[in-house]
């Protein structure tokens, strides 16, 4: 099978973005007849007319609409790949990076990360935004530069990921909670009233699955969407919260934490980004900063 002419990718990108043979020819500095021949080759290559006559103009076919964004992305990545890499001058770098995280990241890692960035690149601003779901669209559409979180089925297959640290779940209650007056067994733990953290509003989680082989059941008193809400409720009541230890370190100030009397699997917190940012020097620098800050952040007692 003959290899496709990759030069046609640029022609395809320009034709689909302009929607006009004349404008595409002018942009690529070709004659209209040469551009018409290129369109004919593209039609033969993909087996679709791509642009069809409608009145005095041309309109894209369904396949052209599907290919337009993909062609633009491929050309953009190819240009970035072949562009000479300039030496990164952090002291002169002026840029804003958007980071999407669940609650707990900013509270635990934000101060050290901001100090590191301010010292090395005073012109860089970090913008933290909440992460209500695992939809990869914000990364794909350049709304977000980086994310942190647990990789799941909703994470896009094209997304790059690198592990930051392992974490495990612990129980958290208010000071002088009755549960802490003696050894915390599975039965005593399950006997409390619990807060379930679920962004999707589910009525059970991994703790309930771990209790089933022991023939135990816990009472879910309330369901919240994030860890800070769970810890706020635990602080002001007799409810029991179950949260990841390292990710909620500073959020647990003033509360009592205890190891779970259950075999609960740990989680891996990862750094996520879109592959088009792989080779960007400033992006690579920020990724390294985040990795080192997370690696240095100690567990809370």
Brief synopsis:
This protein is an alpha/beta fold. 38% of the residues lie in helices and 22% in strands.
Kindly describe this structure.
With 301 residues, the protein is α/β, with parallel strands linked by helices. It starts with 6 loop residues before the first helix and ends in a 5-residue tail after the last helix. The strands form three sheets. Strands 4-3-5-12-6 form a five-stranded mixed β-sheet, covered by helices on one side. The chain has a five-stranded mixed β-sheet with strand order 9-8-10-7-11. Strands 1-2 form a two-stranded antiparallel ribbon. Helices cover 38% and strands 22% of the residues. A hairpin with a 2-residue loop joins strand 1 (51-54) and strand 2. It has three domains: 7-82, Winged helix-like DNA-binding domain superfamily/Winged helix DNA-binding domain (Arc Repressor Mutant, subunit A); 95-167 and 268-296, Periplasmic binding protein-like II (D-Maltodextrin-Binding Protein, domain 2), CATH 3.40.190.10; 169-265, 3-Layer(aba) Sandwich (D-Maltodextrin-Binding Protein, domain 2), CATH 3.40.190.
Class by SSE composition: alpha/beta
The number of distinct structural domains comes to 3
Q: Distance N terminus to C terminus?
A: 63 Å
| Fraction of helical residues | 25-40%
- Tell me about the biggest sheet? 5 strands, mixed
The residue-averaged pLDDT reads 89
- Order the strands across the largest sheet as they lie in space: 4-3-5-12-6
**Would you identify the regions where 5 or more consecutive residues have pLDDT less than 50?**
none
The proportion of strand residues reads 15-25%
Fill in the CATH topology of the largest domain.
Answer: D-Maltodextrin-Binding Protein, domain 2
Globally, the shape reads elongated
What is the radius of gyration? 26 Å
